[in-house]
Design goal:
globular; 13 strands; three-stranded antiparallel beta sheet; Enolase-like, domain 1; EC 4.2.1.113; alpha/beta; TIM Barrel
Length: 353
């Protein structure tokens, strides 16, 4: 087999603020796996510096080494064989590359048609949340109006970047639109442990569905207390990063007892790893949803197909990020009235390797 690599810079339509700073663009690497018969599959490696567990600067060197290691690999014939091969090629501490390699292999064995998990994209219709990015009050309110006009029934707001009173005003205004609207919050660990329960109590007045990662991860005693006492259901996000062994994952579930977990295949090491998180969550009675990690439309397509293999249709996934970029890869992905689906004509943009 052989592996080709194509670096690509995705340009945001606006300055995207995260819990670790602002981004005007983000770099990804597209992978092209080619077998001895000339068949190929495309994958995407999309870590984010200071958010992903791996050092983004180390990714190109590792990919170059993979180009050598892949030469002796025999093409896997099943999903299980793909996961086994990739687990031997890529250590778990480089989750974005595991995701990209799994995606490329799965695309290859399914014919190289971007059909990673589904043979009929037209049957896919997933409810998704409308994401409101961090920003000043006016910017956030403009986004809220836009999402409501677009027909989203679930709105997710990033909180923790403005003063608390201003954020309360924004949420109160949003709740006044409708009592039926589902409001999710994501704090990205921004609340301090000595204030978190007070803030959660204040926010609970607005019938909040859930809040992701209210305090910084790796504070297990504090997080256990928050999960137990919060008047808003807690969803773990960053808390899952860097936990690779099954035993440690079970311990986390049993110790913290969250209400939800947020599954990000790029961040958690691909589809096999994400499947394990989901299986463990369901065993422990914990609900979950799947979220993209600002991948291009290629990675987003793979994640959406993965989400479509499950039957938790009552949860809203976080898959509405494809419209963030000026120069995203052309795709048949459609976001309409709060649903992720595909157009009938499966037209994909080419990548010049």
């Amino acid at each position: 087999m052989s592996l080709e690599i194509k670096p690509y810079v995705l340009d945001f339509k606006f300055s995207a603020r995260t819990s670790r700073g602002e981004m005007s663009d983000r770099k990804v690497w597209f992978l092209k796996l080619i077998d001895k018969d000339g068949r190929f599959g495309i994958g995407e490696v999309a870590p984010i510096q200071r958010l992903s567990p791996e050092d983004v600067e180390d990714v190109p060197n590792f990919l170059e080494r993979l180009c050598v290691d892949i030469e002796e690999i025999v093409t896997p014939e099943s999903e299980e064989e793909v996961y086994d091969v990739v687990s031997k090629l890529v250590p778990p501490a480089i989750p974005s590359v595991r995701f990209g390699m799994e995606m490329a292999f799965l695309d290859l064995i399914h014919g190289g048609k971007k059909l990673i998990f589904s043979e009929n994209l037209e049957k896919i219709k997933l409810p998704i949340n409308g994401l409101v990015w961090m920003g000043d009050k006016n910017f956030m309110q403009e986004q809220i109006v836009e999402k409501l006009n677009q027909g989203f029934r679930c709105i997710k707001l990033k909180v923790g970047s403005l003063d608390f009173e201003t954020e309360i005003e924004i949420i109160k205004s949003l709740r006044s639109v409708s009592e039926d609207l589902i409001i999710r919050l994501d704090a990205n660990g921004s609340f301090q442990t000595n204030e978190v329960l007070f803030k959660l109590k204040e926010l609970s007045k607005f019938n909040i569905h859930s809040i992701e990662q209210p305090i910084m991860p790796m504070q297990h005693e504090a997080m256990e207390l928050v999960c137990n006492r919060s008047e808003i259901p807690i969803a773990l996000d960053e808390e899952l990063i860097g936990i690779y062994s099954s035993r440690d994952r079970v311990d986390l579930m049993q110790e913290l007892k969250p209400h939800y977990v947020v599954i990000k295949p790029t961040l958690h090491g691909g589809f096999a790893s994400s499947q394990e998180w989901i299986d463990l969550a369901e065993i422990h009675g914990i609900k979950w949803w799947i979220t993209s990690y600002l991948e291009s439309n290629l990675g987003l397509n793979a994640i959406a197909q993965f989400a479509s293999t499950y039957s938790n249709s009552d949860e809203f996934h976080g898959l509405g990020t494809g419209g963030l970029y000026h120069n995203n890869i052309t795709s048949p992905i459609v976001i309409d009235r709060g649903y992720f689906s595909y157009a009938k004509s499966s037209v994909w943009g080419d990548i010049d390797f």
